[in-house]
Structures are given as C-alpha cells and as structure tokens.
Amino acid sequence: MATLVLAAAGSALGSALGGTVLGLSGAVIGRAIGATIGRAIDQRLLGAGGDPVEVGRIDRVRLMGAGEGAPLPLVWGRVRLGGQVIWASDYTERQTRQGGSGKGTPQPATVEFSYSVSLAIALGEGAILNVGRVWADGVEIDPARFGMRVYPGSETQLPDPAIAADKGTDAAPAYRGTAYVVFEDLPLAEFGNRVPQFSFEVMREAQGALADTVAPFARSIRAVAMIPGTGEYALGTTPVRYATGLAAGRTANVNTPSGQTDFSQSLAQLRKEMPQAGSVSLVVSWFGGDLRCGSCKVQPKVEQNDVEGQGMAWRAGGIGRSAAAMVPRVDGASVYGGTPSDQSVVEAIRAVRAGGQEVMFYPFVLMDQLADNVLPDPWSNAASQPAFPWRGRITLSVAPGRPGSPDRSVLAATEVQAFFGQAQRAHFSVSGGQVVYSGPAQDWGLRRFILHYAQLCALAGGVDAFCIGSELRGLTAIRGAADSFPAVAALQVLAADVRAILGPSVKITYAADWSEYAGLSADGNRYFQLDPLWADSNIDFIGIDNYLPLSDWREGEVQADDAYGSGYALDYLAANVAGGEWFDWYYDSPEAEAAQRRVQISDDQDEPWVWRTKDLRGWWSNPHHERIGGVRSTVSTSWVPASKPIRFTEYGCPAVDRGANQPNLFVDPKSSESALPRASRSGRDDLAQMQYYRATGLFWRDGANNPLSPIYGLPMVDMDRAHAWAWDARPFPVFPARSDLWGDGANYARGHWLNGRVTSQPVAAVVAEIAARAGLDAIDVSKLYGLVRGYAVHDGSGRSALQPLMLATGFDALEREGMLMFRSRGARIARTVDAGDLVASDDGDFDLTRSNDSDSAGRLRVGYIEAEADYAARVAGAALPDHDGSAVLDQEAPLVLLAGEAAAISERWLAETRVARDGLRLGLPPSMTGLGTGDVLGFGGQRWRIDRLERGDAVMVEAVRVEPGVYDPPQTRAETSAVPVFTAPVQVFAQFLDLPLMTGAEDPRAPHIAVIADPWPGRVAVWVADGEDDFALNSVIAAASVIGTTETPLAAARPALWDRGAPLRIAVEGGPLGGVAPLSVLNGANLAAIGDGSPDNWELFQFAQATLVGVNRWEVSLRLRGQCGTDGLMPAVWPVGSRIVLLNRSVRQIALAAEARGLARTWRIGSALRGYSDRDVVEQVLAFSGIGLRPYPVAHLRVAAAGNDRLLSWTRRTRIDGDSWLSPEVPLGEDREAYRIRILSGPETLRTIEVAVPFWTYPAALRALDGPNVTVLVAQLSDRFGAGPERQITVA
C-alpha cells in the first residue's frame, strides 16, 4: 500500500538491522517496494512494481523463552513482551514444619516444601525508559513484592549483584545495551513451584543521532499538573479503606496490583515515563456553589459522611467528616470526589519532593452547581445558573456591563470582600500534626482556603511554589469606586500573608487566565488591572494558564492556512505560538470566524502588543501605559519591564480533532462549559495533542524567541516549570478504564490527560531511528505526521521494520535530490496537466486502466494489539458497501492501536484499494521538473498519485487514482478499553479465642483463631516471634470463618435450658448462618462464641433457629447458653457490639508449646503468599492462659443451717469426658480434687480457705467474726491453671 522508493537508498533500507543486504537495484527512479496490504490485493493498484516483504506478526502468546541466539526486540512506545531468560540460578529448597509438639496433647507434624530461584530476563535492546506492568501466567502482579530489579540497558550499567555472586565479580556480564530484569530468590509457591511465564510492559523512546533531530514529545514537557484535585484520599500514600464491617468494605485508594496507593503508583509512572519532569503542580480543590461572589462559599466537601476511612480519618479546612458538606449527587453518585484530606495532601507533597521533584501548590475552586438550580445567573436574566460552570465566571451579583450591576461602586468592593472573607493568619495554628482554624466557623471565604493550605504546606515541610488563586478572571475584572480593582488589592494582601507563613524561599504567584493576565478592556478603557499584583514584592513570577490557540485549521484544501499543508505541521503550529490568532489577527463575529475573515490587530499609538494577548514578549519587555477613554497615560504602571519570569502554571491541548484551534476547551457532558474546538469533527486525536506540545517546546526553547532578562539573567519564559495539564493521580490504565470507580473516565479519550499518551513516539522519530540503523544519514521526515503507541521489531531488515508503519500511518518513502524523504500520504494536487501537456507515445497520449473487481477484497479484517488495556490481540474489520460476502482478506498490523484506529486503518485500506483500481500511464516533457514519486497529478478531473517515473526522451509516469477523503485524519471514536477488575488485598480480621475444651480432642493449652477477609486471599498464615524479628510460620488457615457483631443485647439465661428470649440480631461476615433441628443442637451443632473481643472472655452457646432479616443480618433464637463451662463467665447482658464467632471447622487451633503459655508473643496474620513482612499483615502481641485447662465452675452451690453453723455444698463438674450418661460419676479431670473458698464483706476478702471435698462447714465462731451477709465464692482448683470461675452465694 505505502511505497518505499529505492535508488541509492534501496539497498541500505534492505539491510537487516543487524545483518544481510537485500541488494536491490536502484536503476529505476521511484520503484515501489513492499507496497501492499496483502498478496491477495493486486499490487498494481497500490504501488507499481514492488513485492511485499515479510514483516513481523502479532505475538499472541508472548512466551518467555531461553533460546541461545534468539533475537532481542527493538521497541518504540509502549508494548508487552515475553523476554528471554539469560541467567538462572539453581533452585533453592526450603522446608517448613508445622505441629509436632512433643509435650501435652500430641499434634501431627507436617512438613511443607517450597522452592525459589533467581533469574535474569532480557527484554530488548536498550536503553528503555523503564518497565511498567508485569504479568505472571497472564495475571498482573506487583513486581516490587518479588524484588524485581530493572536494568534499562545503558552503556554504563553494572552487573547485577546476584549474577555477580553466582558467576564471580570479574566474570559476571553487565549486559550493557540490553534491557533486562532480575528476580532474586523468586518464591515459586504461588506459581505451583515452577517458574511462571512472565511478560512485561516495556517503554522506550526513539534514539540515535537522527532520531534526536526530531522534536520530542515527552521530553518537551518538564513539569506537569497533578489532577483531578478531588478524591478524599486520592493524594495519599497511606492505603485507606472504607470499612462497613469487621472485614467488609471497599478500598479508597488502592486499585492496582502494584500494592501501592493510586497516587504512589501514578507518581511512579510519571517518573518512569517522564523522567525529565522536574516539577509537579499539586491541584487541590474546594468547592464553590454560586457565581455571585458575595454569595459564594468556598469550602471543602466529602463524598459521604457515613463511613470514616480506616488508616486516615478525613479532615480538611479545620473540620472533620461529620461537619463537612457533601458533594452534590446525581443518580446516587457524587458528581466529584471529595476534597483530599489534609494528611493525604501532606503525604503527596512529601512524596513528590522526596523523589527530587519540585512542588507547586495549586488551590483550585471547583464549581458544583447542578443543573436546574434556583440561583439567579449574574450574566443573564436566567433564573438558574449554568451547571458546573468555570470559576472564571464568578462575578458580582449582576455582572459588569449589565443593567443594575454594582460594578464601579462601593458595593462592588463589598461583594468582593465577602468572597474573600475575614480569615486572618492568626486564626490558623498547628496542633497535633493538624492545621487548626479558630476563626468564624461559617467564614468560607477564599482567604480561609488559601491560608489553610499555606499552613498545611509549611506543616508538610514546605513547597517550592504556591499559587494564591487561579483563573478568577471575573473577579479581577470587577471595578470598585474610582476604577479601583478590589479583588486585585485583596490578592496582594493574601500574597503578603502567604509570604509570612511560607517564608522567603517559596515562589508565590497568582495563576491568571490567558485572557486575563495582560489587561482588561472595558467601557472604552484599557487597564493593566493585574500590574499592581505582578509588581508586588511578594509575587515572584507571572503565572499564566496558557491555552492560547496554535492553529485555525479547517475542513478542505481551500482555507486561510492552506499553505502549510497540514494542521499537524510543526512549522505551522510553532508559527502560531507568537503569531496568528490573538497576535496578528482576531475574529470580530461568529460569521467572520466561520468564513475565516480575519481582522488585523493594529494600534494607532504604535503599541500593538497592548492588544495582542499572545505577545508575551511585548507585554513583558515594555512599560505599561493604560488607555483611559482612548488616551494613553503618560505615567506607566508599577510593572518593571523584564523584571520577573513567566511560568505557564497550566498549558496543554485536548486529544481531540483540531484541539490546537482552541486548547482551552474540553468535553465533559455534565458541565455547561463542555465544548469542542472550532471546526472539530469531534473524534479523538492524540496526534493533535502531541504536535501541540512538540511545537510549543520547539518555539520557547529557541533562544531567539525567549530572550534573557537583563535583570535576573534567565529566559523570559521558564519552560522547565511550565506545567502541562494534566497528569492524573489515578494510575493508567485503571483510569480511565474503570468507569465503575470513577465517573469521568469517558472524558479521557478526548481530554487533556497525558497519562498513557506520553510514551507514544512521533512516527518521524521511529522512522529516523530505523533509517539510521539501516545506514542512512540523509533523510527528511519534516512532512511525516503520525504517532506510534507501541511497536516492536524482533528481527529483519529496515524495510520490513518500516512496512507496518507505512501501512498503518500511511506514508511514502521518496528519493529527492539524494535524500530519502518520508512523507505522509495525501491527495493534494502538486500539478495539474491536461492533454496538451502530454508527450505522445506509440501507444497514444495516455492510457487509463481499471483492474478487475475480482482482484480486490470487499471485506478486510485487521489484527492488531489493543492499546490502553492488557495488550490483547484484537481484530477490527471493514467492508465496502457493495460487498457480497466473498473475498475476505485477513491482514495484521503488528502495532499497539486503539480499536477505533484499527477500524480506521481497515477502512482506509479498503477505500484506497477500491479507488486505486484505476491506473494511469502518460508521458510528460522533460521540462516538467519538480515532480516525483508520491506527488499527485491533476488530470482529467481526477487525482493521480505517481508511483513510478522512468526518465528518457520523455518522463513516463505510472499513477493510480486517489481521493482526498481517504487520507483525512481518522475520527477515532472516544472509547475506553476494558481492564480486568482488580480487588485490592486487604488486612484480614483475625480473632483469637482461648476456649475451653469442646470435643476433648483439642490441645487444652492452644488458642483458636478465626479469620475473615473480603476478598479472601486464598490461604492465611499465622506467624509468631518472641519479639519483633525472626518470625516463624505457625499455622495456615485455608477457609474463612463466620464472624459477626451483635446489634441487639443478649441478656443472661440459665444454662442447660432452652433460652427462648428475644432473638439476637447479628451482622454477619464471612458466610451465612443456618438453623438446625433442636436434636442436632443437643448433639453439638451450631456452637458459637460470644464475647468482648479479648482472647479469653467468651461464652459458648448454641442456637437452633437462624433467620435472615436483612443484608447479612441474621436473628438467632432458641439457644442453649453457657456451654462447656462458660456459664460462669456469662454477664448480666452481652451489650450491642459484642463479637460472635461461629465455631465451625474453619476455626482452628494454632500451635502453642507448653512453655509458651502465658508468655506475650508477637503474632502476625496475613496472606500466606505475601509473607509476614507485607504491609497488610495484622500484628497482635498476646499471651494465652490455656483456657482448655481451666476448671468449670461448680454447680448447685447451696447453704443450709447445721445448728449454729452453716453447711455449704456444691457439685463438682469436669472439663473432660463429662457428657456421657453411662458413667456413674464424672471423671475428676484434674490431678486432685480441690476447691478455693473466699469470704468477702463487700469488696474486702476476709479469708480464703482450700478444701478437698465438695462441701464446707462455716462455723458459727467464724461467722460471728465475719459479720452478717457475707458473700461466699467457690471455685474448683487446677494445679496447672489455678482457680476456675467462681460461684457465689450470700450467707446471712
């Protein structure tokens, strides 16, 4: 399909990237090679005379190999690879012993074998940017958990320590030039004790001398804005969970298998993909709810106020969750995330700076009015304000210029003051690691917002820059009495207060909108209203949110900017950075805009820069004289020319068709501000965004365009701190794919986001590297437009590496004057000829041909690799309207593509083959120079692309017909790919229970453990250590238990009788409850424990009836209480909130040696696969008494008169074999029979007596000494445990 022109370049491009020469002849100018999308399509229609070359195919399996001499892939963009094992150690075997206690009740011993191995896996030629996601056996894993080390393939990398230890320091290879990873001591248990099939997401930029001449994408961006500015814990580095039960709940900020919080993972991705990004603008939002500044509160809000976050309680603005207003909801869902908690903001600041990046703090007012509100619109007569408007529309109660507006009055200043509020620096302090506010509680003005975060930034250890506000264009345009600007004056005061908090080292600014920074035109006057702020000593640089347009591209070939040839042309876009709209000209009406009828900008006082919003240099380098009533003031403002640098506090472009026409616009259906750029056809267009950044970087990094200041000695525009909008704190590709988590994911496709896009490479850079590797040093890629999301070449020639790119992006390779030119295809006519221009031949003036339809395919299926997901192999298809179902062609595009891109490619290929059925051969005179292969001729009312030229007495041309529409940029649908749903691992909930013997087969010393988790991690391990180190595996739990929390009280009841009291309601987790027949209860079924959550305070009971009364809510009734001797511990009431554990088989005993009873030890419980050092393990320091050794309480304690004495008697009970009806007497169960009697008078113990029989006579003499109404307590004794629970009786 695409043509590659030979000549001298033919053999060079035929050279293998590392080997043989193709050896093609260059005798024919413009001979096409490899120009086909499949042998089934007639090559004559796609490029005369060429044969296709074999190219790489889609790797659907991605098997990790270990073959000697296997080629290493060369990667551009972002791809998924299997890799090649280049080193492996011997296997290491480990044995883990459980049980086998030699003392007390014998326990069976088990030995588990586990294995590990170390290995190195080569990924490809270096140097790569980094490795992103990693999969093992197709499942994404956390590489940090397995200690993966990445070597990017630099020429200076050193041998890995593990390889050096195995091979010897001198013999260990460093594998320089090869990117590889190392797993050291990789545990294999979770992979079935085998090495899994790994695959890796590899990112690499185009490199080399030729590629370096191509303007970069990612490396043109040196700073980013971190959005969205909302999400209660979106900025946290601490995992937070909203718990709705003991184990039930949902994660707040961990949504990837990386094991990191979303922010931590996104920040890591930023550093991997944009290592040159040295500054991060941290966006944090409070919410405004009214466009009338005097009525607008700016306050932090939460998504919900029912459940607090575990691990980090929400607090912001000096208030907690319960005091905060809620973000509005639509259809039950919050329209935005809540304000980030203060602690999460502190964590984010520290995390960014810890990585060596600067932080610019960027407070953001986010308007949250819903549609159909009842707030009067200050900009119109509407009774309702627009939904989710821009903060720049905040204005007076009636906007300036409208009848009744208080603009230019004292009332205007009063309304502005109400917006700023009365908060003072003295109202803020730090206590307990929190910012505390002591001012008026209902003062939610801008000052409280800004001063709170100034204090918080100081608490975090400082920031590098701080914005005191942004894009408050409507406010700064408000005039008070005598044409004062009260909002500007208030910002000056605010800047001074922030300076006092943050100190002299922090750079302070206001982030002005691009339409605001330079001045204000109102009522025939031209003001430089922000100059007092810009000149203020507390303002360090001019902050501009720069979304000025870089293009005015329209549909069709006839338009004002047609000379540039393409809206993607870098020279066109760069020329409009300081040119074009808002510099040279403007539109004075919608009609003029539609017709491109431009009005030139001029000034009768020879200061056109006053009106040129784009003329940063003119504004920056000149004194400013206001024009009042059209008269230029003789006195300049306080602005000192060239005194302070300019920083773009925001700049960027949406990834939408013709986004550079109006980069400030965005698509968000819920917002009234949602709009497409001028003349946009609405499709997704990542190339438009890429070209915007490349052109902007090209222009401002050219010293000729960015002069040095004679005052501070640095460039006018500080591009190292120009913050590209935007990088999301939610990691890619989970955002945008997980629409179930975030409601704005659908906006990503056509939005300003850079996540997932910055690794894309300009196709020009990729072609340049391929050409350089093939030995070429003279190429031209200036007219080559396109991007490569991901592409890997495993072997082959330069030609075979180029062909998939040529087919997918649609470009030709042409030889012109000794240089190989790569040029995007189009149908723009280079020259029109008619019959009079032709040179006649023996066959006539010209020859028109049309191929047989049977040679063409009517339907095409294109295989590709899916982008923005897990790189699955997908198929897109297209069919011509007259396709009859036959002649279906399957073809592969071995690139990473969006589904819409793949569909557009298949449609273009089909359309081009259909149009190219028509061929033309004609002769032109030698004098008609300048034409070459790839150019388009106009002839006979049609367009013909020249595929071949033969020079002789005449220039013989072979061409095929083309149509302009075929080469229009594809309108990719705004879709998102799907990724597997990941449920974050969570802490288990572990309940230790030191219980009595229940069956008699238990170890009487050892406690039980019940564990629940949501989700259940598969196997849960219990580790133990005597201190904080040297943990050893104790037990493994295979199944979750059933644990609950009571929601009604449970009063005491007599043991051994049915408790027919009120049902006990329980919130249950881990599984359901179930009723059984009463006889089953008597046979031991449905045994449960109720307690206060401590290890040893449990009553055992059984129940016959269990009724589901709500979601995970059960009521149990018909109970048997105080089982297994726990009646002695039964309180008067078990209160609401008591713990319930169903004692089924999932509750198991852990191992506890006899000598460990009573000793405090450290227990860790967590996922068996993740190990005891995992951050989610639960740690408890506990000692266990061995309740299985505890004697039961005595029964039937009575007192009877025996003369003047009193006879106390009771019945002995046993903890061992006491349930048999056949025994005449229950066995003793202890080494000896003994009881302790205590006599109390009130709280005072009067005497303690030990007896060996189940009765005691209380002599009258002792009674006389002890006094009346004493309490007698009796407990059975155990030599190994001590006293059991006491029974008591009052003796009068």
Automatic annotation (TrEMBL):
Transmembrane segments: none annotated. Coiled coil: none annotated. SUPFAM superfamilies: (Trans)glycosidases. InterPro entries: GH (IPR017853), GTA_TIM_dom (IPR025195), J_dom (IPR032876), Rcc01698_C (IPR056490). Gene3D superfamilies: Glycosidases. Residues 796-950 form the Tip attachment protein J domain. Residues 444-736 form the GTA TIM-barrel-like domain. This is Host specificity protein. CDD domains: GTA_TIM-barrel-like (cd19607). Residues 1041-1141 form the Rcc01698-like C-terminal domain. It comes from Paragemmobacter aquarius.
